[in-house]
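notes to self, project folder thing:

trying the whole complex as one job this time. last attempt i did each chain seperately and stitching them together was a nightmare. two parts in total, labels are on each line so i dont mix them up again. if this works i'll redo the older ones the same way
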Amino acid sequence: MSRKRPSLALTLGSIALLSLTLLVADLSAAQTPKRGGTLRVAYGNEILGLDFHTVPGYEMIWVATNVGCGLISITPDGKFVPDAAESWQISPDALLYTFKLKKNVLFHDGTQVDAAVVKFNIDRIMDPATRSSMRTFYEAVHSVEVLDPYTVQIRLKHPYAFMMHMLAAYRMGLVLYSPAATQKYTAEERRAGKPEAVVGCGPFRLVEWVKGVHLVMDRFDKYFEPGVPYLDRVVIRVIKDPVTQMAAFKAGEIDFIADFSADHVDILRAQNPRAQIMTGKETTPMVAMMKVTVPADGKPMSKDRAPHPIFNDLRVRKAVACYGIDRKEIVKIAFKGHATPWLGIIPPGTLDTVDVTPMCPYDPARAKTLLAEAGYGPQKPLTFELLTNTEKSVFNVIVTVIKEQMARIGVTANIRLVDKPSWLTTTTQDGPFDMYVEDLASLLTVDQNTYLSTTTAAWNHSRHTDPKVDEYYTRYAREMDQAKRKAIAREFQEFSADKLYWNTISGSPFYQIAQPWMKGYVYQAEFKVHYKKVWLDK
Amino acid sequence: MRSYVLKRLLQIVPTVLMITLVVFVMMQSVPGDPVVVLLGDAYTEEDAIKVREEYGLNKPIVVQYSIWLGKLVRGDWGISILSGRPVLHDVLVRLPVTLELIVLSMGVALAIAIPAAIIGALRQNTWADYTATTTAMIGVSIPEFFIGVLLLLVFSIGLGGLLPSSGWVYLPGTCPMMVCGVSLWGNLQHVLMPALALGVGRAAILTRLLRASMLEVIRTEYVTTARAKGVGERSVVFKHALKNALIPTVTVMGLQVGFLIGGAIVVETLFAMPGLGTFGIDAIIARDYQQVQGFALITAVAFVVMNLIVDLTYTFLDPRIRYA
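result (full assembly):
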């Protein structure tokens, strides 16, 4: 017996050691990226076009960040990392940004990425004739100078605290196009996705885009980062219906859903317990925007403004949007709890956010008092139009809940449901509406919001004329001291919650779904969808 | 016969022109400006004015339509305002998918309707007849998208991906792009559920119609005579009764093509198929006038041609019908 015990222990020990070794070996093999394969991606919306500097829409951006490269990029924790630039320097007065470029960066047409390329691209974006949606972000840029073939310097007119954020990730950040291809082909050909015209320096090159059918990208073998991308090919298809997306995911027909409906997350999770469901703090605001001025002469976009008959009165704005809206109830019903009730102009996941939601507790009695002060009551009931669009089903649910909440304070909200182009035309061209529900741009910083809410912005849908809003944006963007900037952000959010030119009701959640075999993907909300380090473990 | 076909083909021209004109005017009347969609975040009033000038959208509707027509005569279907893509190219890429879907849906409809109607007519007021008519009623009542969702739940989710839920695989030799999935079996797998979803409703309508026609025909004297002469029941039913009973059904089949095109929009969206239906609805939603015109043109031509084919099949069904 005494001789058998050590033998048994030894045997068991050996088995355990061997199992452990095999397990470790298996795990390490599982974590070693495999090359090859095709990643099948589903988008919920159509790509509108492929001229990265001009075409709107996140779906285009998620292509641009894979076909194109830029100077720098940003990590999920907000650190700037090199892309085509290998290093950079910012002058003490924050007016000069000098970038040293890597010497091995090639465009897909074989031409070199150098300082002249950077200048060409920034000049193109800043040229009003290009009509780039990025132009507004380059307001601070004075000029771009080529110091030597691989050194480029951006000179600013005034300090701009978010220059690096802007270059890294405002919309898609600065994406470089091959000047040779850009000059050879027309903007229309680039927009149409002609592969010879859409030439970037990213990890994937465009093979084919057939609108409504698919977009195909193949690995660029001369990509400057060694070893990546791992995938041979990425195929993007548009599947609009979430039920069909779920069916395709369950059947293993797609590997990745780039933007999944929050309403269906619980069902998908139940059907696919091993699915990777990725989300984070919301960076997009869900707003119930109120119009505060109207054209005095009846001509849309007129600079001559008159008060909006209902919502120019701050008491009414506060009664309806502050105390009359139960944000928690909206989140519970419309998002099944998968969102954050919110009031501030800076969404919960955006830099320098502060929760000012307690400034507007749900208080129907107070709302009624304020309405009475403004002259509304049983004798003169308040009725307004609540506009939304059909782009997302959740908008419809939210307006229905708001209508119900308004009824509780004696207010009638008449819902008007239109399609997205009609909504865009009404709101952006100063058309008639009282309040609308929509989720707007995803924000890395609130500085990105200038084109949506300064007094002169075309997208200033509330048409407020308060110069204090512009001052806040300017002070925030030009303050280089981080602590002081934070203080300005807090002040701005409190001001915004008090005036309600911008009325957030919650964050708008963003979900991405991946099969268990899709590895190496890093979630960065709507800002970045990179496939270069993705690999398939199957 | 030849002159009749030529005359009918010539009639297509004014019909299609009228349809495209009505669609053009309607699209321009609908609220929503493609320029706002095109410019997106970069929208400014000044740029919007310039873009409208560039695309001729500031011109009167009649002038815009004339320009479109002038280009069409030269074979130019125009360029999508939003994507910059040639409309004709995108229509031709999408057309085979929808054509196949419509033809197979009609095939599904006939495959269900003919036996159900014959059984219903020959065994009138029996359980078989009640089953056929009740099923037809249910089929008429259920919309395509609901049947489609049920099929998805059963065949794609429930049965572990027995049939693909979305996308398209082309028939060998029909790939219109650089990159395609091509396989006969794959194509059949992809088209089966959409064709069923679209065909079942049509089957129900055709069953009811054909059953009524069959009931009428089997009581006619020539059917009685055929039976009295000792002609076999199969021959009586298929050669004498069915062929004559099919005439009103074929007429309705032609009209059903319009419904099939409409249904294709729903079914293609549900099954994420790259067909003309999704092309049309995306174009309408985006207010992409050029693409909407392309969609209207091709569907109008398809509808008129299909009805011409239907008219010509009358001569096969009833040799007494002659087109002078």
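what i see at first glance: Chain B touches chain A through 52 residues (CB under 8 Å).
need to look closer tmrw
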